[in-house]
Amino acid sequence: MTQPKVLVARRIFPEVVARLREHFEVDWYDENEPLSPEQLRRRLAGKQGVFASGTEQITAELLDACPDLRAVCLMTVGYNNVDLAACSARGVKVSNAPDVLTETTADFGFALMMAAARRISESEHFLRRGDWQQWRVDLFAGADIHGSTLGILGMGRIGQAIAKRGALGFGMQVIYHNRSRLAPEQEAPLGARWVSKDELLAQADHLILVLPYTPESHHIIAAPELALMKRTATLTNIARGGVVDEDALAQALGEGRLAAAGLDVFEGEPQINPRLLALNNVVLTPHIASASVPTRRAMCNLAADNLIAALTGGEMVTGLNG
Ligand code: DGY
């Protein structure tokens, strides 16, 4: 019996590819440089499945050019790079990789927020440049985390994991804004309070963005929203770059209308807005919030489980469209 053909569209753990080879004829693009849309189209022709990430654009045009495709399995939780409606309309199953990265991503979001508030990158650069001459009372004095107000925009799994760290670990007051409110029994242990978006912006000492990127959330934080925030506040983004208007953010940071920011995601990544690069009060990291070794392995294995299920008559573990 001929095996289904699948494309693994990036460099991943070899043992996960070995698992896939037990079920499929695998074409492994074993590179870190993403495939161009044209390369992806050519490599996907005649394949039934693809193991992908957040960097491959799965568009209606691509699906039309690859009519054999039956399953798109992402190793990422974000799936804004996939036209889900177009996949569903063509009977292509899609899965993402939630849950396995929740705690690791929350750890990193918290670390980035703390780094911004306590000026860790900025002070390290200062020290490495040899600029440290003497201890000073105000040297890199930043904002406190403990006892402050944590604002969370997007209260899904990762938002809740961050709330838990803030409330239970650091004694923070947790406020959040989300389309739907948590159930009272979810709010109570965290002391979490739903507030309007404007209240969230005005009250948070540390605002963290963990919402999905959709047409509605594009630039959800722009100049008018930044103007509502405290001058002493920090903003951390571990969602997607497109949720923030980076020029407006750079302007606010540069003018001291916002104390600091921590950004793991960027609108044109891996290109970074030069206005952000020019600022000291922003901590910049290369989209690594879920990047612990065990979690990246778990993300890959979950995508492989989904691909195997989708193409062998099973049920995907974390399917997005059936
Ligand atoms: C995700 O899983 O969506 C992370 O942001 C990595 O892309």
Helix tally equals 13
Radius of gyration: 21 Å
- Quote the average pLDDT: 98
Question: Which molecules are bound in this entry?
Answer: (2R)-2,3-dihydroxypropanoic acid
Percentage of residues in helical conformation? 25-40%
CATH fold group of the largest domain = Rossmann fold
Series of secondary-structure elements, N-terminal to C-terminal: EHEHEHEHEHHEHEHEHEHEHEHEH
Query: What number of structural domains do the residues give?
Result: 2
Low-confidence stretches: none
CATH homology-level superfamily of the largest domain? NAD(P)-binding Rossmann-like Domain
Question: What global shape is seen?
Answer: globular
Strand tally, please?
12
Structural class category? alpha/beta
β-strand percent reads 5-15%
Which CATH class of the largest domain? Alpha Beta
* The CATH architecture of the largest domain: 3-Layer(aba) Sandwich
The largest sheet, given as strand count, sense and whether it forms a barrel, is:
7 strands, parallel
Order of strands across the widest beta sheet? 8-7-6-9-10-11-12
Note the main attributes of this structure:
Rossmann fold; 12 strands; 7-stranded parallel sheet; 5-stranded parallel sheet; binds (2R)-2,3-dihydroxypropanoic acid; 2 domains; 322 residues; alpha/beta; 13 helices
